[in-house]
Amino acid sequence: MRIVLVGPPGAGKGTQAAYLAKNLTIPHISTGDLFRANISQGTPLGVEAKSYMDAGNLVPDSVTIGMAEDRMEQADAAEGFLLDGFPRNLAQAEALDAYLQGKGLKLDAVLDLEVPEDEVVKRIAGRRICRKDSSHVFHVTYNQPETEGVCDSCGGELYQREDDREDTVRKRLEVYHAETEPIIDFYRAQGLVATISALGKVAEVTERAMSALGSDA
Ligand code: ADP
Ligand code: AMP
Q1: Any idea where the domains of the chain sit in the sequence?
Q2: Max Cα separation, the chain?
Q3: Whole-prediction pTM value?
Q4: Annotated catalytic residue: which of 2, 71, 123, 127?
Q5: 3-class secondary structure for 146-199?
Q6: Do 84 and 23 form a contact (C-beta atoms < 8 A)?
Q7: How far does residue 49's CA lie from ligand 2's centre (Å)?
């Protein structure tokens, strides 16, 4: 299956993607995680992306689209993937369609996670991620690690993302409404969108997602 996850920052895309990718045996591809890995390795791509990310803006398409396509070219993505955080504007959605069309492929579904803004703000304020692997995500109240400050999966140090500070979060929400939300209508016109509520326990949301995708959790 080729799936796109969409929803505001803090909706729980990364959290759900980890379970969905496992259930569906497809890789979880998060452009945010790819950028953060580049930043921690100090690559030129990471250096370029960091200033945009810290300001809550989108990294330019000229950088992002190529990086996402390179990742989709890897062998583990041959039979499908779960995209998280990509595409994030109409130009990226069009580029993804063109990329897949060029290979005779298409998306199977776009899963739209719906969460009220006040809940998103609470989720982001308490989010802590792992220094070793930013796809390992926790929350100070809703999803606590066994030992405070330590990643359950790999023992890495947990920290608060630079762009999870309040003023940057406001900017990221604005960018989401202005640039990312329009892709939902773009995909709706293709009959691909399934909207589910992302409120409730993580496992409940996973169940809703799996049934929206036509699979059992
Ligand atoms: P996104 O990838 O959409 O930005 P995350 O998956 O990182 O969102 O989740 C944001 C924060 O909310 C994290 O701290 C995560 O632990 C927490 N979270 C995710 N799903 C839920 C849920 N169903 N209920 C409460 N907190 C959640
Ligand atoms: P995320 O981890 O999905 O919350 O993304 C963190 C940040 O990385 C965003 O605020 C953007 O600055 C950048 N980013 C991630 N994915 C994209 C994308 N598809 N296009 C542009 N910027 C992105």
Answers
A1: 2-116+170-212
A2: 47
A3: 0.97
A4: 127
A5: CCCCECCCCCCEEECCHHHCHHHHHHHHHHHHHHHCHHHHHHHCCCCEEEEECC
A6: no
A7: 9
2-116+170-212 maps to which CATH number?
A: 3.40.50.300
The answer to whether 80 and 24 are in contact (CB under 8 A) is: yes
Going across the sheet that includes 127-130, the strands are 137-139, 127-130, 158-159
2, 13, 71, 128: which is the annotated catalytic residue? Answer: 13
Distance, in Å, from the CA atom of 18 to the CA atom of 24, rounded to the nearest integer, reads 10
Output the pLDDT for position 167.
Answer: 87
Q: What is the pLDDT of residues 40-61, one digit of tens each?
A: 999 999 999 999 999 999 999 9
| Ligand positioned closest to the Cα atom of 31 | 2
**Could you confirm whether 88 is annotated as catalytic?**
yes
